[in-house]
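Late entry, adenosine-5'-diphosphate complex.
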Amino acid sequence: KTQLVIDLRIAPVGDEYILVLADDRTEIARVQEVRNDFVANVSHELKTPVGAIGLMAEAIESSADDEESVKYFSTRLQKESKRLAALVQDVIELSRLQSTDVVRQSKLVDVNNLVASAVDYNRIMAEGKDIQLLVGGRARRPIHGDPELLGTALRNLVENAIRYSPEKTKVGIGITEKNGQIKISVKDQGPGIPEDEQDRIFERFYRVDPARSRQTGGTGLGLSIVKHVMGQHGGEITLWSIPGEGSTFTMTLPAVDEQSEQDLLGPDIEG
Ligand code: ADP
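Prediction complete; structure with ligand written out below:
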């Protein structure tokens, strides 16, 4: 499929008006280029785990008599296949997000519940590194949006905070509500992100430390997904980080105002 961007304009010429129809080839070329880059990157990213899985399987076959080796290669095989599954899932999620600007379902979402389930989801990973997850603050008003997408975005932030932090540190998730805006921030005591890379980490497959990201199961797509989800909800994602001290990622979303909440919860008025 190619995307055709057509621009229709009515232009005055003397006393008359003419209809101008223009197709924006530059835009089409740009969209196509972004798409081609993505396909190239995905193919490249898929090659690593797929290749590794093949090698592990061969290694298991050739060391069938050696129980230790079989165990070692099986564990690595499982790790690679998990990574492959996560990558495929993220690619599908991101392609879906990129193919439309409209949120799939619009519901009233309780931010407090969203935070609680993101914490639950990441609890085992945190325990594995002896990282304490702390939650503070509450939102009074809900937000409007797709609970699944918002959940995915928040889970990604909490997962990153744990993934990149050293053992025995703390990750804080704070909720604040002010002037009709709800902020959810995820703060860690990890390595932080160098200033010149702070914008770039939201790009697809950009990693500050590629080896570390891959080794810990990262797909390189988490933050792009977060950014798209925020864009679709009229929100934004910001980052505050001092290298060596930690990072704070903040999602800002508009709270539902009281009147529209009433309208949504009340009976439908017809006619
Ligand atoms: P990945 O799957 O590699 O984590 P993301 O898109 O989620 O992909 O993140 C992109 C990169 O940003 C990561 O590879 C990592 O280098 C950096 N990053 C993300 N979150 C953090 C964090 N909390 N602390 C330090 N670095 C981070």
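The CA atoms of residues 180 and 255 lie 5 Å apart. Will revisit in the morning.
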